[in-house]
Amino acid sequence: MTTLTQLAASTAVAALVVLTPALVGAAAPAHATPSQGVTTETLGQVPLSGSVLPEPAGHSALPAQVTATLRRIVIAPGGTTGWHHHLGHVAGVVVSGTLTRQLDDCSWQTSPAGSMVSETPDSDHVGLNLGPEPVVLEVLYLLPEGAPFSTDAPAHCS
């Protein structure tokens, strides 16, 4: 190798050694927890004007345009949604099984079949199935147009 080629190679290796930790850290959220054992099915979807809908109790006002989506979510025994949050309003009912959630303040909520559940926009949480049968949820999402159903979040609690 020529001296110039060796210098270029050495510089490239040094740059990788210095930059790789920063690039890896920037590519993935710290301690994000993936979902496991979760399946979803979209049952219906319609765009709506947020102004024609009542403001959800205890939640912030809806944006001018929302997409209303009804989904069935099934969490297998031992399954988890992973830590996440929603960019809009989410409310649903536990059809069967028992949903256990840990919220961003590290408190726990247990919701057996027949329970109503709701989630405040941008509030991190994780849903778990600690029981022996699948948890089945029917959930209505009122999200800003184009928003994903959920956004990964880092784990909050040990």
Task: Describe the secondary-structure layout.
Blueprint: H1 3-27, E1 36-49, E2 65-80, E3 84-85, E4 89-96, E5 98-103, E6 108-112, E7 116-119, E8 125-128, E9 135-144, E10 151-152
Antiparallel strand pairs: 1-2, 2-9, 3-10, 4-7, 4-9, 5-6, 5-8
Protein name: Cupin domain-containing protein
Pfam families: Cupin_2
Keywords: Signal
Walkthrough of the structure:
The chain is an alpha+beta fold. It has 2 domains: 30 residues; 117 residues, Jelly Rolls. Helix content is 16%, strand content 45%. The protein has 1 helix and 10 strands, in the order H-E-E-E-E-E-E-E-E-E-E. The strands form 3 sheets. It has a 5-stranded antiparallel beta sheet, with no helix packed on it. It is globular. The N and C termini lie far apart (52 Å).
